[in-house]
Design a protein that fits this description.
By secondary structure, the chain is α/β, with parallel strands linked by helices. It folds into two domains: 12-145 and 327-355, 3-Layer(aba) Sandwich (Rossmann fold); 152-316, no CATH class. The chain has helices at 21-32, 53-56, 71-75, 92-104, 126-139, 156-161, 185-192, 209-213, 215-224, 324-345; strands at 12-17, 36-42, 81-84, 108-111, 142-145, 167-178, 234-241, 246-247, 252-253, 258-269, 272-282, 299-308, 311-315, 349-350. A six-stranded parallel beta sheet has the order 2-1-3-4-5-14, sandwiched between helices. Helix 1 (21-32) crosses helix 10 and helix 4 (92-104) packs parallel to helix 5 (126-139).
Amino acid sequence: MTSTGSTPARPLRVIGWSTGTVGRLVIAGIDARPDMELVGLWVSHPDKVGQDAGRLAGLDRDLGVLATNDKSELYDLGADVVIHSAMTDDRVFEGLEDLVDMVENGLNVVSSGPVLLTFPDGLGLDVYTDRIAAAGEESGASLHVNGIDPGWANDVLPLTVTSLSKRIDLVRVSEIADYSTYYQPVVMHDLFGFGRPLDYEAVLWQPGILTTAWGPVVKHIAAGLDLTLDEPLVEHVDRIAAESDFAIASCEIPAGTMAAVRFTVTGTVDGEPRVVLEHVTRTHVDQAPHWPTPAEGGGSYRVEVFGDPNMKVEFTHEGEDGDHNDSGMLTTAMRLVNAAHAVCAHPGGLVVAKDLPMITGRGLVAR
């Protein structure tokens, strides 16, 4: 295990897991940190096997690490941690099994999903969490799932803001964003149902799915505030249709099909709302002007704490190209990379964001 204090005597030995949108950024992020060394890389596509990690990450140079799809080969490397960013939104239980297998093989893991594991209490995942706990007790290996949302923007940031409170009546965390340049066709077209008829039963709008996907955010905040929430959480969804045909990065959106959505997952105590997770997702900046809008640019995360005092934090980001969806992928990747040392130092088992120490971008100031 490594220390989160002074720079370790040797770099953290890291395995990258996938080379998709986030995975490529993870590789570049590992390469940017002087206290990390990429020692292995897993890929799912057979055409990528044998290719250099640097080329797969778009770095235009070799890193001397060749991709493989042989898990046992990677497990035998003696690495400290796996940074896992493979797509799990459409293969949740397979993803859970993958992560548990890594921990049972003695590897620390930091992952972007499945997001259920950001705070799995009450989700009926004991068959997995019990195995993670047992493996952690035996080997000291830890597992942490996070990102930007679900993740830092709606667990670490709001809980940090509440440290300034004298009285808290309500915590509301929101993502307010234009997804027109976000390229994830499975997520946008199938899970959300953008470009589908309004009566299409997309996965996310089926009863209980929002509670499964974003309920962990609400329960994580509640746990940080020592609240016992009513069951079940309260879900609400509003969708609007496109007025004309147009296209976004992920799919076509014909007139009359779903073009924007606003949803909330609310945790109540004795019937009184206490924690609210909200998403306002547009595919064009001019849609639904009566819904909340970002303070600037194409997207923001908003934290509102009502009580004494009333507080609001608006967090925005954009990539070097000015696109907030690109930087959303980068912030997710770097949250994983920068958390790796702290996760390795944890005593073992599943670790949630509220229980980690402060994580910084140590070593990343431009030299």
